[in-house]
Amino acid sequence: MKTIKTNKPQKANITKVYTLHQLDWLEYVALGLSLWFVFYPKPYEILLIALLLLPFVGMFLNGLHKPSIASLVEVDYSAKEKYDVADFIDVPAWAIVLRVLMDYETDSFIAIITAGTIALVGICLFLLATHQQISDSNKDKTWIYGSIVFSFFVYSYSAVVAVNCTFDTSAPKVYETEVIDKHISRSRKGGRSYYVKVKPWGHHYDAENIRVSSSAYDQYHIHDQVVVEYKEGVLGIPWYYLEK
């Protein structure tokens, strides 16, 4: 039996598919804006909005043709299979965490858990809407899902605090108190946090350390009369800050 050869050209697949590698430019944007936000957060609101949107923009572009969720994770086999989530997700998340820790004092753990959980569910649903669940992959599925959910966890809970405080225009309640101590906390990596300790105020019945900026730290002295301004938060998470 003879084999009949044909010169009929095969139909080429011309569908353009975004891959994580093709989104390197977005990861560079995420890195640049994150460093800007951490070290020189001006204009604060605009930078925050940009970082909040970056994970959604990245997932949308990467998910234009419904790739597997595994496409958002790279594996460094030289480092014993280190799983690294796309930088347009985890870099903004950690930048927002750092700014939240430096800028805001919150007063309701339960409210943070509630709002953060809603945000976490929302971003996971967006992921499932733009990507397919993992069917076949040479990567460990548990680590892939775990690393992505962890990045979403960091993003969600820090994002709700940042939005709650940054965009809060409510009138504050004012409480007068007195400075009784101040100190600088140094981390192992050389970072510094500045605290002013005040007498009990409002519903805070114990003396409390309140974080202040490095530029404001020298303005406070022991026995100074100061004001704590307490706000309800745009998402219902109470927060407060120290005014001279």
Short recap of the structure:
With 244 residues, the protein is of the alpha+beta class. Helix content is 43%, strand content 20%.
Strand content: 15-25%
Distance N terminus to C terminus? 96 Å
Going across the biggest sheet, name each strand in turn. 3-8-7-4-5-6
Q: Look at the helices and sheets and give the structural class.
A: alpha+beta
Low-confidence stretches: 1-19
Q: Please, what is the average pLDDT?
A: 87
Which percent range fits the helix content? 40-55%
Write the H/E string, N to C.
Answer: HHEEHEHHEEEHEE
Strand segment tally:
8
* Count of structural domains: 2
Please tell me about this protein's structure.
- By secondary structure, the protein is of the alpha+beta class.
- 43% of the residues lie in helices and 20% in strands.
- The protein has helices at 24-39, 44-62, 87-103, 109-130, 141-166, 214-217; strands at residues 73-76, 82-85, 105-106, 173-186, 192-198, 208-212, 225-231, 239-243.
- A six-stranded antiparallel β-sheet has the order 3-8-7-4-5-6. Strands 1-2 form a two-stranded antiparallel sheet.
- Strand 7 and strand 8 form a beta hairpin.
- Helix 2 runs antiparallel to helix 3 (87-103).
- The model is unreliable at 1-19 (pLDDT under 50).
